[in-house]
Amino acid sequence: MANFGPKDIKKLRETTGAGMLDCKQALAATDGDQEKAIEWLRKKGLGAAAKKASKVAAEGTIAIRVDGNKAHMLEVNSQTDFVAKNEKFQSFVKEVLDHVAANDFESAEEINASEINGQPFADYLALQIATIGENLVVRRYAKVVSSGSLGSYVHSNGKVGVIVASETAGVEDALKNIAMHAAAMNPKYLNEEAVPAEVIEKEKEIAREQLIKEGKPEAILEKILPGKIKRFMQDNTLENQKYVMDDKITVAQALKQANADAKLSDYVRFELGEGIEKVEEDFAAEVAKQMA
Questions:
Q1: Chain segment 72-93, per-residue pLDDT in tens
Q2: What domains sit in the chain, N to C, each tagged with a CATH number?
């Protein structure tokens, strides 16, 4: 006779998030022992997670936490947007973000190599994969530290996140607005100094070729090129972009309206799935594969 009942199954399900049938099998295999049943499910989950690990995870969410003078930003990927909106996924992301803030990591590699809740992060992640039912990846992490002010913004759909900083205190509200600007306008660099020399040379080369095709005389090319590069800087650096809330001023000028001495010191922007090659798969074939 089994040493467990419906209440035990319910408790195990609430503890692990595993399916009802899996919980029943786990309790049956462990004679109703909750702790052993959790371990049984974890071992089963690791096996299930291994099958899912090959799936491309390009959806998910960007999450930010600001603690005092530090801001932490994560990109956590799932396979589908549907799962990204799931409460279990959101709870998982929050737990990872809390773990990151508590341990002050420097990179995603450090996070994935750490221990969480007394277990290797890889084992914890595998259990989450088995429970949630999709491949999950803690892909990117950024930390910004400032002795002055921090501003952050995550778009409502969780697909874009931005952190900006200034070494001037008391300009948090202005920085939040600037973070919103950066989310919308996607500047590639903080300022002109942050643009690599090779990028500038490449832009000069492109501009030169365009001007030659337009029939501009070789003698005046060098006079036109500086204006082209200036326009590139205006379009691609956060400080020099026209401010979306008032296009008569730049972002740098908008910050100085909050404090005349304030200047941006750091900028990080994540857009969900950047650089991930998504694999298109026939839906009918995917269903057939799952049934096989």
A1: 999 999 988 888 888 999 999 9
A2: 6-52 (1.10.8.10), 56-145 (3.30.479.20)
